[in-house]
Amino acid sequence: MRLAFSTLGCSGLPLPEVVRLAQETGWPGVEVRAAADEPIHIGLSYAERAAARAELAGVTPLCVASYVKVAAEGDDDACVADALAHADLAKDLGIPAVRVFPGAEAPRTGPLSPGAEAPGDDADQRAVARLRTIADRLPDGIQIWLETHDSHPRGVDVARILGQVGDDRVRAIWDVLHPWRVGEPLTVSLAALHPYLAHVQVKDVLSAAERTPLPLGRGTVPLRDALELLRRTAYQGWLSLEWESKWHPQAGPLREALIASRAWLAS
After folding, report:
1. DSSP 8-state secondary structure symbol assigned to residue 149
2. Torsion angle, alpha carbons of 164, 190, 101, 141, to 10
3. Cα-flanking dihedrals φ and ψ of residue 20, to 5°?
4. Which of 2, 130, 116 is nearest to 73 (CA)?
5. Which bin fits 59, alpha (ψ -120 to 50), beta or left (φ > 0)?
6. Can you tell me the distance from the alpha carbon of 157 to that of 113, in angstroms, rounded to the nearest whole number?
7. Burial letters for 27-41: b for 16+ Cβ neighbours within 10 Å, e otherwise?
8. Is pLDDT at 230 greater than 50 in this prediction?
């Protein structure tokens, strides 16, 4: 598996320094966080996008990590427009995908089965309708990646949506932490997501309640088991460290986490 990291762990770092960090630590892939406080955001001019694309030439940019919430209450047209603005940004930067969240107001609960339907679930139906519309309007070569997160933390939750969307351009990110923290077995997560799986994010923490980032292998997330499952299914994608120091300032520097985590993976 190829190694990547999210710029969430080095928020605001200029792109040339992100590239240098990737090259020096042996993590050549990058998830590029898109936000107003980052070098990358949807307000960039065409010239600024061209410059940013050139600056990223030394790494493999994997996705534009947006904060679009496809299952949240609100205006459908605004949500679709926001997702498409990020898709246009990805296209201009030469990045193949946009990360989106579910983002509904309350966690979705239901049967722990990949095929489970959720009739009348407004959050699910909002996400399905919006993702279908977004997919129909995506620029050529761009995908949307829906992450196991917030209101839909389990693999079965995301798979339930993607199965109804039914479009190969709309795929899944397995953030290993979130299904685990709500009790979904790894085997269930991967079985549900496997038909849609585009990308895998890993992180380690002390517990489901104490989620300050730790270098891989130093917490309680069953990462060895997750990696073994991925090997068994011949996963060919990237393994991305999401070092959430943006939200946990007490976490150590990303550089140290990358070095320590790479050493653990090599072991």
Report:
1. B
2. -70
3. -65, -40
4. 130
5. beta
6. 9
7. bbbbbbbbbeebbbb
8. yes
Which domains occur in the chain, in start order?
2-266 (3.20.20.150)
Q: What element of type H or E holds 241?
A: strand 238-241
% of the chain at pLDDT higher than 70: 94
3-class SS of residue 62? strand
Q: Which two tokens stand for residue 77?
A: 């047209």
Q: Which single residue is written with the structure tokens 């190829």?
A: 2
Q: Which residues contact 133 (CB under 8 A, 6 or more apart)?
A: 76, 80
Residue 188 vs residues 66, 97, 176, 208: alpha-carbon distances, Å: 27, 25, 12, 18
Q: What is the pLDDT of residues 120-160, one digit of tens each?
A: 389 999 999 999 999 999 999 999 999 999 999 999 999 99
Residue 5 has pLDDT above 80, yes or no: yes
Residue 82 clears pLDDT 50, i.e. is over it: yes
Rounded Cα–Cα distance for residues 20 and 62 (Å) = 17
> Does pLDDT of 118 surpass 70?
no
State how far the Cα of 133 lies from the Cα of 156, in Å rounded to an integer: 22
pTM, full prediction: 0.95
Q: Is pLDDT at 32 greater than 80 in this prediction?
A: yes
How far is residue 124's CA from residue 242's CA, in Å, rounded to a whole number? 26
